[in-house]
Design brief:
Elements lengths: L1 H18 L3 E14 L4 E12 L4 E17 L2 E13 L5 E17 L2 E14 L5 E11 L10 E11 L4 E14 L4 E14 L2 E15 L1
Parallel strand pairs: 1-11
Antiparallel strand pairs: 1-2, 2-3, 3-4, 4-5, 5-6, 6-7, 7-8, 8-9, 9-10, 10-11
């Protein structure tokens, strides 16, 4: 029943986005694989594809891998990663970007809400554009409930982007979605995303439906 309701919501949101001239409707799909090295470290690998222009055109793809240290304390995780990204420019040409980044994630609870605060510092070595340092902060709140046998957990999140130069704050993402378990070693996530980015003298918006699968070994 829950999945039927969710599907109806997705269809309604999708129809609204398709009909809107204010912003593009997109679909984002992602897969992550985690390998435990020992009790302290694990290796992570990620692939993501983004489709824009009413979800009909692949315009962005990245591969990301790195190592996560998870035994410093229960309330914090550290991650060291490298991302190879490709994105189409205004001339519909693929441009490459090399992006090492450091993640520090704080974790805790407040009024039974599961909270996490991820800080990400990344260096963007971009083709045909100025290299820049960027800071991202994503705060996530997970509701203290589980629905159906798949243990659906609703969450909301907000992420802000800062270029560490004169541009400063230039992007915001709002998320609403659910995480769930397909098996002991396979987890999933479905979400809706609204993004607003500064462009020229104004702000451009997109709406996206996203899905993520996570595999643990």
């Amino acid at each position: 029943m829950f999945f039927a309701i969710l599907a109806m919501v997705i269809l309604l949101v999708g129809r609204t986005c398709f009909a809107s001239d204010d912003g593009d409707f997109q679909c984002w799909s992602e897969a992550r694989v985690y390998f435990d090295i020992n009790k302290d470290w694990r290796f992570a690998f990620e692939e993501e594809f983004r489709f824009g222009e009413n979800a009909g055109n692949l315009y962005s793809h990245h591969s990301d891998f790195g190592f996560e240290y998870k035994s410093f304390a229960d309330w914090v995780d550290f991650g060291f990663y490298y991302r190879q990204a490709y994105e189409k420019d205004s001339e519909d040409k693929w441009r490459e970007e090399h992006r090492p980044h450091l993640d520090i994630t704080l974790k805790g609870k407040l009024f039974n809400l599961g909270l996490s605060d991820r800080s990400r510092l990344e260096y963007r070595d971009r083709e045909k554009a100025k290299d820049v340092w960027r800071y991202r902060n994503k705060v996530t709140a997970t509701l203290p409930i589980e629905l159906t046998r798949f243990k659906l957990k609703p969450y909301v999140a907000d992420e802000v982007f800062f270029n560490l130069d004169t541009k400063g704050y230039y992007r915001n993402r709002l998320y609403g979605g659910v995480t769930f378990g397909l098996s002991k070693d396979v987890k999933g996530e479905v979400y809706y995303l609204w993004q607003s980015s500064r462009s020229g003298g104004g702000w451009e918006e997109i709406n996206a439906l996203g899905a993520t699968l996570k595999f643990y070994f």
